[in-house]
Amino acid sequence: MRKVDVIVANGLTGAEAGLSLDDQVTIALHAIAAAGGLAPIQAVYDAVEKAIPNHTLSDQGRASLRRIVNSYAVKAHYIYPYDKNNPGWRITPEGRDFLTFEQESPKTIEVIDVDRESLRVVPANAVRGEIFERHIEVLLKQMYPRHAWIHTGRYKRNERGLDFYGARLTPDEGQPNSIGVQTKLHQPSHAPLEIEWLKFLSGCFARRVNLAVFITTGRLTGEQHREAIEAQVLVVAGREEVNRICAQFHVGPFTDFDTEASL
Fold first, then answer.
1. Domains of the chain with CATH codes
2. Each residue of 63-96: pLDDT tens digit?
3. Which of 33, 57, 115, 263 is deepest in the core (most CB within 10 A)?
């Protein structure tokens, strides 16, 4: 068998080699950071291939990796959008922050499967979660344009139950002085653990927010719904409801719910 035939036979996509979206983004960011913050796509290919010994990336694998870098990593604000006047991929401050904390970040999380009434361990999906947060940030600024917004979720060590905090800039009757928001990119049947839910409620209490908002692509448990009503928490739950609210405020739909199968 010729050498080229061996390469073709051993060619894989990152997903086929067992690398998740988070894994491939992390490898790409490390490669770019190691090159001084700017690297060509070939350096990213080489770095991923080092993570899959005895194999190379197939044509589909390279195409998927380009999509990961150019779409998902850019949407997460980890990499700057491609600039034809400055070729190569550049890491952002947010990308460097991600690398600083990624070794400490959990690779899996526990959730409540509401349909099965049981706990489940699922991938953390940090990159898609960050993309969802960025999408919701646009929505919040449309919903409450007279508030100054801080993306506290960017600093995972110090978020204390809130991904966003909004403070009113000018007097406005009927608008809350302060808003605390938590987001969760969950599967349709998944709800947050009770400790995560209580962390959100206590984070709102500690900051004395006037309006608490919980936005999830999943669900809440019956008990969490009851507590939300009693605490006057604004809940947006479910993929369809999230996108319905986005449409109301002229924000495009969130589409990056499930990506692993296509990579």
1. 3-102 (1.10.10.10), 108-262 (3.40.1350)
2. 999 999 999 999 999 999 999 888 899 999 999 9
3. 57
